[in-house]
Amino acid sequence: MKVALIQLCASRDHDENVETVCDYLEQAGKAGARYAQTPEMTTLIERDRKRLSAQVTAERVADAQSRFSAIAAKHAMTVHIGSMAVPLSDGRFGNRAHLFGPNGAMVAHYDKIHMFDVDLDNGESWRESAIYAPGDRCVVARATEGGPQIGLGICYDLRFASLFRAQAQTGADLITAPAAFTRQTGQAHWHVLLRSRAIETGSFMLAAAQAGTHADGRETYGHSLVIDPWGTVLAEKTDDQPGLLIAEVGLEAVAAARSKIPALQHDRAFSIDAVDARPAQAVA
After folding, report:
1. What angle do helix axes 161-170 and 183-201 make, rounded to 10 degrees?
2. pTM listed for this prediction
3. What is the pLDDT of residue 276?
4. For residue 123, what pLDDT is reported?
5. Pair 172, 203: CB distance under 8 Å
6. CA 20 to 30 Å from 280, out of 32, 96, 242, 271?
7. Strands (DSSP E) along 114-210, which ranges?
8. Radius of gyration of the chain (CA)
9. Which of 57, 26, 29, 28 is nearest to 43 (CA)?
10. Catalytic, out of 40, 46, 128, 200
11. What pLDDT is recorded for position 77?
C-alpha cells in the first residue's frame, strides 16, 4: 500500500492552511497514495486563545471537513487529518483527528488524550490544557472493508506506550502519531520514541510532522517518518521543510513481526513492591 505523509509549516491563517493541505492531498492522490496523513494542528498553529477563537469557528471547521472529504472521494484515498482545532460547547477546543474513508465518509475522529503541559529547560513553557479539553477514548478504525486497522494518536500521546499497546492488542496494523514536536524535544526523542512504539507493538508507525519556524513563534522539528514493525525507518523527510513523503508499506510485515516476537500475547498481571532502604540495625 502506498502511503503519503504531508509535512507542513502551518501559519496563523486558517484558510491559507486549508488551501495548502488540499494542494498536498491532491498531489498525494495523483501519486497513487491509498492513505494520506497530515500533522497535528493541520489547519492552524496559534497559541493565543483570542486569535484561535477568532479563526476557528464551527463554519470554518465544517467547510474544511467538507473539502478534505471531497478529495478523499475524488482519489478513493483514506485521508487522515492528523488534528485540527474544533470548538467545543464549554469554550475550549478539541485537538481532534479526523479519518475520512475513500468514499469521503468520516469513519472516525479522535481527541488527543494527553495534554502537553511542560516547562522546558530552554525557557519554553506550554499549557495545552488551558485551551484544549483532553479526550478520553482510544480509537482504532478501519477505513475500508478488509483494509488495515488504524490506531489514532497525536503528538504527546507518543510518550504513553500503553495507548499504542492497547491499539495493537485491539488489532491495529498501523499506529499513528501526527505531531508538532518542539525542536528541542524532537532532536532528543522523536526517532527513538517512534521506533520504540513500532517495535513494542509490531506495527507500522506513521508520523507526519509540523516543521520549521511558525508565525506564533514556536519551532517544530519536522522529520516525518514511516517505520516498519521491526523498527526500520522506511522513509524520512530529513529536513524541517514542508513537503510530501511517500512510501510503500507491506502489511504482511505486521504478522511476520508479531509471530517472531509475540509480546502482545504475553502480558501478565503483577503487583508492585515499593521498598524503602533503611539504616542497618546494630547487632547486639
Report:
1. 30
2. 0.94
3. 86
4. 61
5. yes
6. 271
7. 117-119, 125-127, 139-142, 149-152, 174-176, 204-207
8. 20
9. 57
10. 40
11. 97
52-97: pLDDT as tens digits:
999 999 999 999 999 999 999 999 999 999 999 999 999 899 999 9
pLDDT for position 116: 83
- Give dist(CA 14, CA 32) in Å, integer: 27
Handedness of CA 17, 95, 118, 51 (dihedral sign): positive
Phi-psi region of 230 (alpha: psi -120 to 50; beta: other; left: phi over 0): alpha
Return the pLDDT at 102. 97
Instruction: Report the Cα 104 to chain-centroid distance in Å.
Output: 20
For the chain, residues with pLDDT lower than 50 are none
Compute the distance between CA of residue 28 and CA of residue 5 in angstroms, rounded to an integer.
8
Task: Please give the helix or strand (H or E) that residue 221 lies within, else none.
Answer: strand 219-221
Q: Are 9 and 242 in contact (CB under 8 A)?
A: yes
Catalytic residue among 112, 138, 200, 219: 112
* pLDDT, position 125: 63
**Counting beta carbons within 10 angstroms of the beta carbon of residue 17, is it exposed (0 to 12), middle (13 to 18) or buried (19 or more)?**
buried
Q: Phi, psi at residue 107, to the nearest 5°? A: -80, -40
CA 210 from centroid of its chain's CA atoms: 11
Q: Is 219 a catalytic residue?
A: no
Contact present, 29 and 74 (Cβ < 8 Å): yes
Instruction: Give the pLDDT confidence of 104-133 residue by residue, as tens digits.
Output: 999 999 999 998 877 767 666 667 888 899
Active-site residue, 22 included: no
Q: What is the C-alpha separation between 160 and 204, in angstroms, rounded?
A: 17
CA distance 128 to 133: 9
Alpha-carbon distances of 103 from 107, 128, 143, 172, 252, rounded to whole Å: 10, 34, 9, 21, 25
Catalytic residue among 155, 200, 219, 237: 155
